[in-house]
Design brief:
- The chain is of the alpha/beta class.
- The protein is built from 13 helices and eight strands.
- α3 crosses α8 and α10 packs across α11.
- The longest helix is centred in the middle third of the chain and has 17 residues.
- It is globular.
- It starts with a helix and ends in a 27-residue tail after the last helix.
- 41% of the residues are buried.
Length: 333
Amino acid sequence: MVSLTKQLADSTIPMMAAIRCGTQPIVVAFSGGKDSVAMVLYLLEQGIDPSRIHLHHHDVDGRGPKLFDWECTESYCRAFADAFGLSLFVSYRQGGILREIYRLNEPRQDIYYQEVPDGSFLRIDASARAINTRLKFPAVSGNLSIRWCSSTVKIDVLAAAIRRHPAYSRDVVVLTGERREESKVRSGYKAIDRYSAATKKRRAVLWRPLLGWSSADVWAILARWKVQPHPAYMLGWTRCSCQLCIFGSVNIWATLQLMAPHKIEAIARIEQEIGFTLFPGTTIKDYVSRGVALPAQSAYWVQQATGSFTAPVRLDDWRWPPGAFGKESAGAS
């Protein structure tokens, strides 16, 4: 077996070859978006035993009301896992993004994670952390200290779960789906790196297997496997991030005004209560009014996106979704 430590030190050893020779669990940060789906399909194409693949999905609303995320996302992730016989683990920070926005003179909320699929949630106490105040929305920035949504409810949650999970006490490989094509920042990422949960006893490697892939490459593997993409793509979204993603274009937000007006109203109320707007220098209602909604949406896919996902995951007749090569920004880059 090629050790993970050796793999980090010797870039001449292909990562997939090292994984094939090993038995360590493979954790996939699984949002349900096309890149996370493509990572899983790539592993399966390479003959990786499905029992080693652990899909980890973060509930960004923290088991509270579905405000920021698509209502269908967790059920889509579960349907995908079931269709391929894979394990799905869910984790979250209590109250999610909304609770963090309202944080006032207190530490960040506790993290909850599952040690077995569909199991009970175990709590990681955050009370010993620094006490401070947020009262802000995450910023449209590549800096994760101010675009805190990604770090607080996803990146930090996964790392905390891996540190506690007994299956990852020794070796683990963690896969995330960034691609160089997406942005200048991501173009500088390493394909292989030391994962933040690594210790002297736990050898943990971060692998970005899609880093050199194009969007066309990603859609090609979904087409080969005839996998139904997340409903967001069927509605014209180019990315499957949060439904209320701060990186969504003005036209995406105008579409949300038609699709989920109650969520726009909720953001407007939060702006008034905390005295801070989602987008600098403008209220959410003014921002939305500047956009032009995407073409008329399929009633079927609106229903699938805003409720529980019930469509087939494996298709006989696979077709390009409207959002496959769209131009509207709909997620972080």
